[in-house]
Specification:
The chain has 14 helices and 20 strands. With 464 residues, it is of the alpha+beta class. The protein folds into three domains: 85 residues, Uridine Diphospho-n-acetylenolpyruvylglucosamine Reductase, domain 2; 122 residues, Uridine Diphospho-n-acetylenolpyruvylglucosamine Reductase, domain 3, CATH 3.30.465; 221 residues, Vanillyl-alcohol Oxidase, Chain A, domain 3 (3-Layer(aba) Sandwich), CATH 3.40.462.20. Helix 8 packs across helix 11 and helix 11 packs antiparallel against helix 12. The two termini are 22 Å apart. Bound molecules: flavin-adenine dinucleotide.
Length: 464
């Protein structure tokens, strides 16, 4: 096996073939290696740019599998990455030459509808969670794309339609089971290992492997009023300003997003608009649908719509609305997210110019309103530092041709630089680019997170 493994230090003996066979025998799930028929599929993630070759991929089926794999990697000095839904734009689920703990087969969701609690295994995707909870008209406040893993999303904070009404995903986390670098299974909650509990709520995934999360559930749906309106790019000045006026007094039940990009060559849009700029306004009303129709109506009248798909729909349908836009493995992605204090007219004008300058017609610049319940939690209460931001801006460079990598990444970085004028500099852990500005993701909580990392993972086992 020599040459396949990267050693973290020279103190460790690389695993022999016999060591690997012993690990294989100890696992209930499969151990996938280079040369296996499904190796390439198992190392592929959502971002088509990521092409890393791990030495081992452990498809864990239970907590014991996770512990065995962590112990094996630690004893042999190998780097570990954890794969939840495989959706992180940086591809951090896959470590070059190291060991991947792949949780995709640990995706069960157990719902107690009376206590309104769900226990969710660490490899579940949002669609698994929504399917199980919506059966009872309940929900875990999470993200807006059903393919996203609950693991990485929760560890990064978790924003979505319901953040203003019910808080971030982490604000609804009661406890988690975590396998730490020393191979122990710890419970993290407000009363047990509270430091670890603080760190996993927004601090990213470097403190251990979360084998299951316990969430508080809220009533929702199963149908909700959803707004989904396309306007012409030339109407952007009116649409953006009227949207800003609307959200200034919108209730916490309204979660909304505004996206700017280019109309695709799709028959649902008039042919003369293909390739032209659009402004898309989307919303979800977290409450009674009749009231939702009334409250969402003004978002449908910000200008003359090109296409209005709004209506009362199952929440699970809303959650898969964007799935096709972001196909796994087919496109190349570089995404950043930053917090904005204000969106004045100058910020709007800049966003319109920047989307015009995007090298790829697939790029979008989206922003959503923060605040509400998510903003009423203190900056130091969890590791998620940016509670006081008014808006989050999502910079999404999406393209197909590897030759266009440099131009698209440079554009996204330029957007971040140019929009600094409207920001306190904070960035969001959910869309970290390739972790170029790690400290900005954690702001005022960065130092405490570093201390926790040194305590729970002193050898930096989870360094992906
Ligand atoms: C199309 C798309 C839409 C998105 N929408 C939203 C949104 O609405 N709201 C939002 O907040 N974010 C959103 N995100 C960002 C998303 O939350 C992050 O990319 C997140 O890291 C994805 O989690 P994952 O489990 O799929 O990722 P993976 O790539 O599997 O994992 C990313 C990292 O998370 C850690 N990790 C994952 N699972 C575990 C676990 N069980 N235990 C320990 N560590 C773990 C690991 O460190 C891993 O390196 C979106 C991303 C995409 C691509």
């Amino acid at each position: 096996m020599k040459g396949v493994f990267t050693m973290s230090t020279t103190r460790y003996a690389p695993p022999t073939s016999a060591d690997v066979l012993r690990l294989k025998a100890a696992l209930s799930g499969r151990l996938i290696q280079p040369g296996d028929a499904d190796y390439d599929r198992a190392r592929a993630v959502w971002n088509g740019m990521i092409d890393r070759r791990p030495a081992l991929i452990a498809r864990c089926q239970c907590v014991t599998d996770v512990i065995e794999t962590v112990n094996f990697a630690r004893e042999h000095g190998l780097a570990v990455s954890v794969r939840g839904g495989g959706h992180n734009v940086a591809g951090s689920a896959i470590v070059e030459d190291g060991v991947v703990i792949d949780l995709s087969e640990m995706a069960n969701v157990y719902v107690d509808p009376v206590a309104r609690i769900a226990r969710v295994e660490g490899g579940a995707r949002l669609r698994d969670v929504d399917r199980a909870t919506q059966r009872y008209g309940l929900v875990v406040p999470a993200g807006v794309v059903s393919d996203t893993g609950i693991g990485g999303l929760t560890l990064g904070g978790g924003t979505g339609w319901l953040s203003r009404k019910y808080g971030l995903t982490i604000d609804n986390l009661i406890s988690a089971s975590v396998v730490t670098a020393d191979g122990r299974l710890l419970k993290a909650s407000a009363t047990e290992n509270p430091d670890l509990f603080w760190g996993i709520r927004g601090g990213g995934g470097g403190l251990g492997v979360v084998t299951s999360f316990e969430f508080r559930l809220h009533p929702l749906g199963p149908e909700v009023m959803a707004g989904a309106v396309f306007y012409r790019g030339e109407d952007a000045p009116d649409v953006l300003r009227r949207y800003r006026q609307y959200i200034a007094s919108a209730p916490d039940e309204v979660g909304s997003l505004v996206s700017q990009g280019r109309f695709p060559a799709d028959e649902m849009f008039p042919a003369e608009l293909h390739g032209q700029r659009f402004v898309f306004v989307a919303a979800c009303y977290a409450g009674e649908t009749g009231e939702g129709e009334r409250i969402v109506q003004p978002l449908r009248e910000l200008a003359e719509p090109v296409l209005d798909l709004s209506g009362v729909i199952p929440f699970t349908t809303l959650q898969s609305f964007w799935d096709e836009e972001y196909p796994a493995g087919e496109l190349r992605y570089y995404w950043r997210a930053m917090y904005l204090d204000d969106l004045d007219d100058a910020a709007f004008d800049r966003l319109v110019r920047l989307i015009d300058e995007a090298p790829s017609p697939l790029a979008t610049l989206d922003f959503g309103q923060m605040g509400g319940a998510a903003g009423r939690v203190g900056v130091h209460e969890t590791a998620y530092a940016h509670r006081d931001a008014a808006y989050m801006l999502y910079v999404e460079a999406n393209w197909a041709d590897p030759q266009d990598d440099a131009a698209n990444i440079a554009w996204a970085k330029r957007v971040v630089t140019e929009m600094q004028a409207f920001s306190d500099g904070g960035q969001a852990p959910s869309f970290p680019g390739f972790f170029e500005e790690r400290e900005k993701l954690f702001g005022a909580n960065y130092r405490r997170l570093q201390e926790l990392k040194a305590r729970f993972d002193p050898a930096n086992l989870f360094r992906s």
